[in-house]
Amino acid sequence: SDHKLDYPLSPAHMDWASHFPAFVDPDENKRNEGGFRQLVKDVEVVDIGCGFGGLLAGLAPVLPDTLIVGMEIRISVLEYVTGRIQVLRAQSEQAQKTSSSTTSSPAPAQAQASSSATSPSPATAAPQSPSASSTAITAPVPGGYQNVSALRTNTMKFLPNFFAREQLSKIFICFPDPHFKARKHKARIVSPALNAEYAYVLRPGGLLYTITDVEDYHNWILKHFEKSAPVEDAAAAEKQEASDEREGNSDTGVKELWERVSDEELKDDPCVRIMSEETEESKKVTRNKGNKYVAVFRRKANPEWP
Ligand code: SAM
User: Fold this and answer.
1) Is 177 annotated as catalytic?
2) Active-site residue among 42, 177, 244, 269?
3) What digits encode the pLDDT tens for the residues 6-15?
4) ipTM above 0.90, yes or no
5) What distance in Å separates the CA atoms of residue 209 and residue 259, rounded to the nearest whole number?
6) Cα dihedral 140, 50, 55, 9 sign
7) Ligand 1 centroid from CA 85, angstroms
8) Does ligand 1 come within 6 angstroms of the Cβ of 118?
9) Could you give the angle at which helices 192-201 and 215-225 cross, rounded to 10 degrees?
């Protein structure tokens, strides 16, 4: 439960140094308000509900200079992904050493090494140990997986404890738990209140990526991000809006901060391919020949106050 979740008092109190040791500022005197060593750069990319870490492993070599963190609420899953990253880092370091001792010009890295390194069992089963499933990385990988890490938290409650205003350039929400029943919709990780938080931590121009295999959830996402999303059941929508308004959970205003990114623009974005093919859930959907619905939203500039 939440009282067991460790979270920083504020972003300035977060210990990022233990997550990204390769990016710690060499000046020992540079400390944040929590007394922790500072990094030479901020974490910029977040995978919300990262599961077994397929997206992290896929993104790491594609964005080697960007610090990426996965956030996951389940203890066993977090342990698995942490172990997986350790294995990837160690293998990558070994490959780097081997390559520099055998040749003076190392072969370029293969991003595919990341996805073949582990293949977790289904999300419900206890995951197999990452070290037991290693298909060794043989060529150096850009960034050597030093740029990815994962931590345990409930993102629905603590996101602003970890990230300052406009700190992030990308947020990923891949195959969120669907919570099918209407009375469970408040447990969904996309909602007016949470979208306001995502807009707070994402910088103008930053992107929020979503993918789901549940069409109803995709429509829910569009409804909560797009001003002009089509409404199927007008009466139900009106009722919902009235209840949102009563609960102070209205979309009004929040949607002004988002615009959908066109398919044309997304076709050259490697992140879309990675989230569609390399997360564990996306692989499961592919095996089951399910549909995948992608929607990406750009955080617009802050509105001018009159
Ligand atoms: N994104 C991964 C993928 O595509 O393979 C995992 C998808 S899985 C269906 C959803 C994940 O979100 C689960 O691992 C779950 O534990 C996690 N999750 C659900 N609610 C969360 C929350 N409030 N904070 C952090 N993680 C959460």
Assistant:
1) yes
2) 177
3) 899 999 999 9
4) yes
5) 12
6) negative
7) 17
8) no
9) 60
